[in-house]
Design goal:
2 copies of one chain form a homodimer. Chain A is of the alpha/beta class. Chain A is built from 11 helices and 20 strands. In chain A, the strands form 4 sheets. In chain A, strands 3, 7, 8, 9, 10, 19 and 20 form a 7-stranded mixed sheet that branches. Chain A is globular, with a radius of gyration of 22 Å. At the A-B interface, strand 17 and strand 18 of A face strand 17 and strand 18 of B. Strand 18 of chain A pairs antiparallel with strand 18 of chain B.
Chain lengths: 375, 375
């Protein structure tokens, strides 16, 4: 038996033409350890958008003439081509995670037959996905595919932040942008685990949302007295680690400076080299692709700015930790790790210019879910 | 008995006036564990200049009217005052290290009487310095005060780089600006210890100087093909750690990108999140006080940019390591750790506007030594 369905692919050629296409693919029988899952829900995460659109210029989007398959053409400006040199000419499937129903199972995976599962591993923007049984987790009774669609990246990232902070000896955390699905999960984890969290948002609506789930430290970076309030919040909580998905500009630098100012309030802590309090900024996304501006004046000499990536963190954390985190996600799927979507679209809708532009805005609070059965 | 001499001090008041003055101070008898050293040579390091001049504007320097003592007034622009808030109103002695002859010794330090020693601990821009015996090291026979004046900061920093690189699992190092006294020491250490070193300089003269002491990888950042050559040198050596005293601008980012490009040459190493090869940039100075510009495009998600400071490193390294490093400096003082000075000045000359401006240029290859006996 075989399963025929659509699969979304993104290809950049050496001239900078990026083609998005919905290809017909045929899946053969699953191997002994494999299952075939009918995809019912798959989220649009920033990391998916990076793969889908690369550094393309979204002001010109054109459907190619005379094409049979659903297809769309974008252009990557020459200056940005170097950043994607490693993927030139490769037809890349998209979609890191999703959920659906097991429609076929190999010999060792028979127990999963007919079950609804969450899964992780790429190529989820498709009607069907064949996948190793170890990469799927059966959903709790009553959980929908939408509930399970985002049970890997955001939950494990939020849990990974808390594990990282603990392992590196920090007692409180700063997070931005804090009102995202991930940010809400992080706030719920921190409340449950007793870890003070300083949330930085960009609007009063986002602040209100976070307060409604129990956040006590919520700062709007657009407020005039933001720097002072941030320093106060950092001093009150003792936060010395921050996670930042914005990346570009000077917010990360501002956070480190607030930590240094807070540390310098301890009498005797100041020297001409700054305090000895170690301050860590992790950049885990790139919502703003502009360069990170690190103003070292008044920052001292005890700080680090590093990249944080789930796919680098998990192997370092080790299988025992990963298993513990996965179990917590499954146990608290519809509470701590509940995700919210503002719009559900079909697979073919991804090839619409206005949808792509909405993806590219990466606005906090705007979150897409793809349900291939919608078309 | 008492020793009366001059001591250079730097004071910034709350209005931003920075006063440099040569004060008369009187040193009393040394305690049991102390010695009094007649200072014969003390270098002008970037860290000294930071304390001496703060973020003052050197375009206006005026001698204050009617002052008795040698004295000079500078102005710190209001926008830069926040960076030195912790030192406002404090009269700070200057000069991290130096060398001289022990003219008085406490009971437990009697063996040092009459000896020429190198020493570390601040307030060295003075005629006399009273100091704990544990902060001095007797110079080898035949070594001059100039030989021993810089036996702490640069040698221990260069050795600290190599220790840090080894401890963190790196097999080759990138350094900039590489032609400094510190850079030359680092090259000699790396040659002795068999660690490949990629030197980045800003002129052909500096490149020639480094080659003359055995450097094989020397790159001029002003060359048009610098980025390509840096990538090649990094690929050839396997360098994944860099030490940078410039700090401002995009050179640090360029170095990390070269490391990432070099790592991506390994077939299969590329993914859309970059390679998994961890790249570390340490900023250990601030010759350029402008913000660090970190261009994260094409950098992947396995990197860290951190501050490196000798005074934070040594306590972390522990007393055994520090003792081993100090011993190596003493053993190789006039070879590996030889320092070169382009100009020797008296203590009073520090209060001359043209001398201060020469300090502030922080030009590689221009290095001042102060000999208080010259006036």
């Amino acid at each position: 038996m075989a399963w025929v369905g659509r699969e979304l692919r993104s290809t950049i050629d050496k001239n900078g033409t990026l083609v998005l296409s919905l290809d017909q693919v045929e899946l053969t029988e699953p191997g002994d350890d494999e299952v075939v899952v009918c995809v019912e829900a798959t989220p649009v995460n920033p990391s998916d958008i990076g793969l889908l659109l690369g550094p393309a210029d979204l002001s010109h989007i054109e459907p190619p003439e005379g094409s049979q398959a659903p297809c769309l053409k974008l252009t990557v400006p020459p200056a940005r081509l170097g950043a994607v040199a490693g993927r030139i000419g490769q037809s890349l499937p998209v979609g890191n995670e999703g959920a659906g129903t097991v429609v076929a199972a190999g010999r060792n995976a028979a127990a999963l037959q007919g079950k609804r599962v969450g899964m992780y591993g790429g190529a989820m923007y498709a009607d069907y996905r064949k996948i190793n049984m170890r990469e799927v987790i059966p959903l709790p009774d009553g959980a929908s595919a939408a509930d399970g669609a985002s049970m890997f990246i955001n939950p494990l990232t939020a849990l990974g932040f808390v594990e990282t902070a603990r392992r590196e000896g920090h007692k409180a955390i700063v997070h931005t942008p804090a009102a995202s699905n991930l940010g809400q999960m992080l706030q719920r984890i921190c409340l449950a685990d007793g870890i003070p969290l300083v949330n930085i948002v960009r609007s009063e609506e986002q602040a209100a949302l976070l307060r409604s789930i129990g956040a006590t430290h919520v700062l709007n970076s657009k407020d005039e007295d933001f720097a002072t309030r941030l320093t106060d919040a950092v001093a009150e909580t003792g936060a010395t680690i921050a996670f930042d998905a914005i990346g570009g500009g000077k917010l990360g630098s501002d956070i480190l400076q607030a930590m240094e100012r807070a540390a310098a309030r301890t009498p005797g802590a100041y020297s001409r080299y700054g305090t000895t309090v170690f301050k860590q900024l992790y950049i885990y996304g790139s919502l703003d692709t502009a360069p990170t501006m690190l103003d070292r004046a008044a920052l001292g000499y005890a700080w680090s700015v590093s990249a944080w990536l789930l796919f680098h963190y998990l192997p370092k954390a080790g299988p025992d930790v990963v298993q513990r985190l996965r179990q917590r996600v499954a146990d608290e799927l519809t509470t701590t790790f509940a995700s919210h979507y503002t719009r559900t679209i079909g697979l073919a809708e991804v090839l619409q210019a206005d949808v792509l532009r909405a993806f590219d805005r990466k606005a906090t609070g705007e979150k897409f879910l793809i349900d291939p059965s919608l078309g």
